[in-house]
Amino acid sequence: MHKKQNYIYIGVDLHKETHTAVIINCWNEILDSITFENKPNAFSKLLKIVHKHSKELIPVFGLEDVGGYGRSLAVYLLEKGYEVKAVNPSLSWAQRMSSPTTKKNDNYDAYCVACVLIAKLYTLPNANPNDLYWTLKQLVGRRNSLVKDLIILQNQLNEQLKHNYPSYKKFFSDIGGKTALAFWEKYPSPQHLKNITVENLTVFLRKASNNACSTRKSLNILELMQSDGNTFRDHQDVRDFIVKSIVKQIRFNKEQMKEIEEELRIIVGKMGFKLHTMPGIDIVTETQLIAEIGDINRFSNADKLARFAGIAPIKFSSAGKGKEQKSRQGNRTLHGVFYFLAIQQVQTAKGSKLPRNPVFYEYYNKKIREGKTKPQALVSVMRRLVNIIYGMLKNRTEYVMPVITNKEAV
Prior knowledge:
With 410 residues, the protein is an alpha/beta fold.
């Protein structure tokens, strides 16, 4: 008897409200199917159907999304001691498209997942929905949402200010900074500055900026306001209200981001990782890397992590002829994190023109001297970063800057 005959295969098509499961044997024959709600109390219905057909066979489950809609089911099955495999959606899609007559519905999708389960039983990764990494990813996702909202809010603030203060961009270096926000909230339009003297405005700005603003700043703002001319329009009080509302929301988002970043520091501290010891990696970048990579132990070496991130090249050849090409596969979010991290490693400081990381700066220029283009050299830096990040995560070690003089790097 072939080993695969010892199993009964359950493919599950996952959705937000309900899941659909199809049970098949090793000959791809459908034994049963069931649709059940996506909640722990309903998962027992699935097991009852499975037990009816399993008898002496070992149930093995295939789930496409063990980190999203299918996470609760994966955790439930693992706690019950069942074998659960994570099925890449591209595999089930390829299975569905391989049929001479393609179709799509929940039952057929679940059947395709079960077929992939049979074909790749020994190569599919085991589902491992770790609570710590999952929670970290939720926090990172929440912060990313706040960042996107903040960009929208700042665009809305720009839209309002360009009507009230045409020269507003010259008022402050950062229109979303602490001092600027205090000013927009207090004086959303020029009419609120009518009876304000330079001295009064200076007192306000010094308090808002912790004594960073001078009398010259106040004088400059009032002169710019005068040069703009009369910007008062009907219903100005409503637009002033909008400006104040936007400012309050920006402040709230920034406070929320600070609180989330503090929670991220606590979680990373519990994990014991020290990626932040590398130049260019702050708490945000560190947590993005950890959240997207997950448990580093699921990668046996750095090469596999590079392929997961879409950084390793793919060889296309036929009849002994071909070449390596840039990969468009892999985790594109993780690829983006490594890309921007590589850019930071090869940058030079604006003032001194000294490299921020002399080692990577020299490595980058070495690749260019060898004939690589700048984008190709940057990919080489990304690939070396993968090796270093892999080692730091695997051994929970700090980054130690190799000894190299700035003269050698330049």
